[in-house]
C-alpha cells in the first residue's frame, strides 16, 4: 500500500520540481539628464522577501548621457510559474542620489529589450527593490 502511494505522489513531486523557470534577460539603453550624473543599473529577479541580484552596470564618470547594459539568467523556484525581472536605477540626476525601478511583465520567455530613460521626466517610482539595492 505504501509503495502504491509513493508511485502516485512521485510524478507530482517531479512535476513540481521541474516547474522552476530560468530565462535569459538582456536590458540595454540610454539614460539622459540635462546635468551631469552618475548611475548604477542593477538587474534583479523579484521575490517575495529578498530579490535575487543578477548583475550591474555602473558609471562613476559624470555625464549627461549614460549607456547601460545588464544581462543574466533569472531563475524562479518550484512554486513559481513565471520569472519577474526588474531593474533598479540609482542615479544622481537632479539630486544627490535617488533610486527608481522598472518592472517587466512576469514571463517564462527570454527578454531582450532596449529601454531608454529620461531621468528627469519619467513616471518611475522608488520601489522595495531600491532598499535592497544598496
TrEMBL record:
Q: Which domain of life is it from?
A: Eukaryota
Q: Which UniProt keywords apply?
A: Secreted, Signal
Subcellular location per the Swiss-Prot or TrEMBL entry: Secreted
Which InterPro entries does its entry note? Transthyretin-like, Transthyretin-like_sf
Q: Which Gene Ontology cellular component annotation is one that this UniProt entry carries?
A: extracellular region
Q: Belongs to which family? A: Belongs to the nematode transthyretin-like family.
PANTHER family attached to this UniProt entry? PROTEIN CBG07241, PTHR21479
| Designated name of the protein | Uncharacterized protein
Q: Which gene encodes it?
A: WBGene00274898
